[in-house]
Here is the input.
Amino acid sequence: MPAYRNVRLCGKDCLCLYVCPTGATDTENSIIDVAKCIPGCMACVDACPSSAISMLPDKYPPPQIKMDTVIMAQRVLGQSKVQQEKIAETIATLSDSPVTRQFAKAIAKSNRCMAEDILREAGYMLPQSTKVRKLIEILIENAPAGFPKDAAELLLNKLQKIVV
Amino acid sequence: MRKFKCSICGYVYDEAAGIPEKGIAPETKWENLSDKFICPTCTAPKMAFQLLNEAPDQTTVLSTDNSNKFIETIAELSAGEISAICSSLAKGCEKQRLTEEMDSFKKLADYFKIKTTPIQQNTTLHDIIKMLEKDLNQSFSVANKAAKANADRGAQRSLMWSEKVSTMTKSLLERFTKEGDLMLKNTNVYVCDICGLITIGDTPPDVCPVCKVPNFKITKIERD
Here is the structure.
């Protein structure tokens, strides 16, 4: 469980420098050095007056179980948003007008955000979840041409399994 | 005297109070406001307001019916859906500081994005309006009912945001089809990184009117 500093909250109070027993917080780029950080030590977390340091969890809780009616309804909307993104992207590439292209670009980005959020709530929130693992396995099994198999296999190897 | 609430940001127009600083006198009735009236906080159009009903919401009956357990394994995910799921998981990995995993999910997202069915070249913004009409008239209410019936707070939250964003986009698109490029000629366009809300104006809002994220998470869309 290493510590993580949120640079946006960091008030450069620098108390973490004094309390850290290993110097892990004293880095050029403000990112706490995971190699030096003593997992679970908490000294910097407790010392920081700006509440800018927190611990990254070791384990993530199993995700909430999604009901099929919810999954299906979310997917209908997710599909629609993905299609709208595609239409907007096509217009953003083909239109002659710079203003129309700009507006279409905004619509494409907006739809990607919505599709991600809506489908995340269809049961794909946690990268470590069984459902996500299953999806990656199915993709590898049915890998179409050009599929980035290495990336998918890396995910299966590296993502921690959640035992429910 | 009645009150009308902006369905995008929650601002309430009170007929009794008017908005004197905007030249709208107290006791100005809703129907006497100009059609060009826009929400003073988030610029949503007049049509985005709803009559505020003081009566409390009826409580919904809880149902935990999950008898259709087989549905999702049969209904294959489309390439577009897989792409959005993977780009969302990449964001999840970024939050967990899992850089390699984030990059891998991005690769999968990009791969499936290219694999999505191409769109006909003659599509127009009207096609998006038509799809938004279906979302807003049908799909959102089905999804909201399902999420409520199963007390799924996460799904309800996602639907509340995306329904507001969709309403706003539809009204912007309708204006754009009337006014054309002039609508945006001398103004900037912004998109919220979190909920996707599109806002137009000289500066981004301080916080997103829909998801309330501060504006360092709001991106300016450049004109090229």
